[in-house]
Amino acid sequence: MTIVLGFSAPRPLRGLGAAGLALILAGCSGRQSALDPAGHEARVVGDLFWWMLIASVVIWALVMAFSFYASHRRGEPWSSRAAARVILICGAILPTLLLAILLVFGLRLMPMLRAPGEELRIAVEGQQFWWRVTYELPDGTRVSSANEVRLPRGRRTEFVLTAQDVIHSFWVPPLAGKMDLIPGMTNRLVLEPERTGRFRGACAEFCGASHALMALDIEVMEPDAFEAWLQSRRTPPAPPRTEDGAALFLANGCGACHTVAGTEAAGRVGPDLTLLSERPSIAAGILPNNTDNLVSFIRNTRDIKPGARMPSFAMLSPEQAASIAHWLLTPRSGTAGTRRADATP
Amino acid sequence: MTLRLTWRRIGIALAALVLGGLLFGWSGLFYVGATGGHWGVTNWFLHWVMQNSVRTYSLLVEEPPDLRDRALLARGAGHYATGCAPCHAAPGEPQNPVVSQSLPAPPDFSRRIDEWDSKEFFRIVQHGVRYSGMPAWPEPGRQDEVWSMVALLEALPSLSPEEYRRLAYGQEAAEFPAGGSAALARLSDPAAPVLADCARCHNRDGLGRDGDAFPIIAGQSETYLVETLRAFAEGRRHSGMMQPPAARAGDEALQAIARHYAAQPRAAAAAAPADAALIEQGERIAREGVVAQQVPACLSCHGDEALRRNLAFPRLDGQHAGYLQRQLEAWQSGVRGGGPRQELMRTVADRLTADQVKAVSAWFAAQGTRQEAASRP
Known about the structure:
The complex is a heterodimer. By secondary structure, chain A is an alpha+beta fold. Chain A is built from nine helices and twelve strands. Chain A has helices spanning 11-26, 40-73, 80-114, 223-234, 243-251, 291-299, 301-304, 318-329, 335-343; strands spanning 121-127, 130-136, 142-146, 148-152, 157-163, 168-171, 179-181, 187-191, 197-203, 215-221, 281-282, 287-288. In chain A, strands 3-2-1-5-8 form a five-stranded mixed sheet. The radius of gyration of chain A is 26 Å and the shape is elongated. By secondary structure, chain B is mainly α. Chain B folds into two domains: 50-57 and 65-263, Cytochrome c-like domain (Cytochrome Bc1 Complex, Chain D, domain 2); 276-375, Cytochrome c-like domain (Cytochrome Bc1 Complex, Chain D, domain 2, Orthogonal Bundle). Residues 370-377 of chain B have low confidence and may be disordered. At the A-B interface, helix 5 of A face helix 16 of B. Chain B: Pfam families: Cytochrome_CBB3. Chain B: This is C-type cytochrome.
């Protein structure tokens, strides 16, 4: 017989309990879990967590055993001298010692986690409810993107975190702990991913109606593939070909807020939409990236994302919105297709 | 004889009163005709209640703008001629005998006008008067329009018939016979063609009159004008002054009007002198937006290039600064409404500060003058 969650459930419920447990544990691995680390800091902090967990369980068991012994097994009363000694050792000296060990262990980690990054810097600016991403190359070139961050494996990349409207918090649990984005302040965070793959980050500080709809995609690539990708982004890609969508995009004022590199659209208010086709999701990590989702997001923006700064373009017909979406999602220039294949581990 | 009051007897008496009242109403004996008027005491009581209510509720009214502004007077008069004069008459135009027989009869302003202060006038014009036939303003939220009507009402006793006719009909006075406002038909079906109705305020050349009283519509995109007139006619754009003429014109006439005004040459408004720093700030907003406030550049929709791409956006160059400013303020307070794209402008206007509204309005106004000056031979 199996024991589920420490109690014996009636037979029909057992399967359910096991399934529930499996579901809960499934949350511990995957794209957005600190318990399935894929970065240096997350691993170190994860190790610390496990050591602390094990130690706490051992201490808890000892305390329980000792109190059981004291109340049930030991027949005679404690002399005040013996009691004072127990309190002194177990209540003061031992905890101080354990906490000191923990403190030294923790402090020893901190400089390691605070070590500066290498050449590449990525500026991330939090906005209601999306992320402005700018790769700042050592030679001063800037490559802009939004809601998606690509990182080279094994390198220490420095993030420069700012916010424009309210406080946000940048958290990619598999890679590292979180760091707040505070208006008027610049915070720094270094990420050192250790394995390639796709991960999910999220805003971890309540920032408004659509706080829960403010996520971002992280893709960790092999350093060579990353370098090739970044180099290709230094020059604006050839504009997508479907002209109808381009004309509609500009005619309806979309370019006032959005940039699509290589076209006349150069707005800096909203997310950069250059090479939107290469991002796994749209609307800051909340919808899978495909034409249907993009059409409904364009026409029902504020229904899908309450409080979004972009107005709903309900005056566009579904056909017009589809034309714009199709244009934005058309893969651009020759290298766009092969890059994807390189990036996939 | 003593009558003992008990709960039971009180209840029976009340029930008898209610039943008696219902019986009286059902019998049809109550006289609802307007002839003969009210009893003196009824008349006194109704007026007493109404005057008290206006006085008390006028405490909520905010401070008026400068009511001696000529533009307010012109706007008020343009609407008064079609919206108010059919019942209340006008200087030099006697009251229609038909309306003088209603109960209560609308006061005849060609003879005298009651003593109300500005805020009380505002309250009456904005909300109307229950049980009297006095309607509320079609868009009570458009306080600027209500104030211009108050400005006219305060000036009315001192206006000569000629002055009134000029303010109400502009260059179209010949199309509207003197005394014509007594024709009730004007409320629904203008005696003169639609264009003459529009031209009373906007002139046939679309440049308006009396300073910045009316927006410049000459040379505006036809697509935008049609969408705007339809929005007025259907109540999607809010204005107590523009909704009635747009609604009574009919769609075919609206299209013709849009065609007419789109074809007029756009001439510069006589721009009020604005301070150079203000205009410079306005230019920056118009060209670059204010990224920190998430304000996109105005010209990305209202610039020459953008207007070539999409005729549904209005051109703003050479428009009166005051008009632009009032529109932006109306966007911000949520009363403007508009055509199918109203959501876009509302979103953007909300993000501008009062200073920025002033600056960008001044720049667009000055921009037109410069262009005009440059293109003039």
